[in-house]
Amino acid sequence: MCSCVLTGVGVAGPDEDGPRPGGGPLHQQRSYGPGAQLPGGSYHRFRSTSSLQGFSEMARERSKTVTSFYNQSAIDVSAEKASVRLTLATLLYSGKSPDGHHILSSAKYLHKELPVRIAHRIKGFRSLPFIIGCNPTILQVHELYIRAYHMLSDFPPIKDQDEEARFCKLVQQLLDDHKDVVTMLAQGFRECRRHAQDETILRSFLDTTLCSRLGIRMLATHHLALHEDNVLR
């Protein structure tokens, strides 16, 4: 990945500098300080070597960050799994057990299902044209989904009501973290719209992402409502 694409700064390597004003060797010309007068009476400002190295380091770190979004094998595996769909009737008329077993069943389903659905969305971000996927705002949303995936995947198996209560806190935290996703996506695509050669790709991505987001939030809030109802009894 070219560092100049990510930073907007062109950093010339030692063999790309070419001729310098004054015609002298490269090591001689670098002996002039910023703003020093060159032979022939002209002035030239040189960017310090440390400054160039700083930009280069920033570019490499940025490149690593973006690349890491695309190289996560666990997400790849989850993205290949099919999600288990529930109908509204299933959600509305699922039986309630006096001992709260239905709450544990719902939590176990979410614990298994949410990482798969989120992995599908991450796969969608990866399929965006690269210049759009590298937009800082789009990357922020992409990172939110990756973070949510790992937080859910790392949560231990839910075996009792205490673990279910902890899981509810995690789900609520993720709902809060993602509350501005729609606004962020709108901003990101507005910023990079001029780079989109085929707007049908963007429309398809947004339609799928927003529908998936709606389904995920419905499942999550439904479980939280079940949990709250059980606590109030």
CATH top level of one domain is: Mainly Alpha
Number of strands: 0
Radius of gyration: 26 Å
CATH architecture descriptor name of one domain: Up-down Bundle
Summary?
With 233 residues, the protein is mostly helical.
SSE map:
Layout: H1 3-7, H2 26-29, H3 49-70, H4 73-79, H5 88-93, H6 101-126, H7 130-133, H8 136-153, H9 161-177, H10 181-191, H11 199-232
Helix pairs in contact: 4-6, 6-8, 6-9, 6-11, 8-9, 8-10, 9-11
Please describe what this structure looks like:
This protein has 233 residues and is mainly α. The chain has a domain at 99-232: Butyryl-CoA Dehydrogenase, subunit A, domain 3. 66% of the residues lie in helices and 0% in strands. It has helices at 3-7, 26-29, 49-70, 73-79, 88-93, 101-126, 130-133, 136-153, 161-177, 181-191, 199-232. The chain is elongated, with a radius of gyration of 26 Å. Residues 1-49 have low confidence and may be disordered.
Features:
233 residues; Butyryl-CoA Dehydrogenase, subunit A, domain 3; transferase
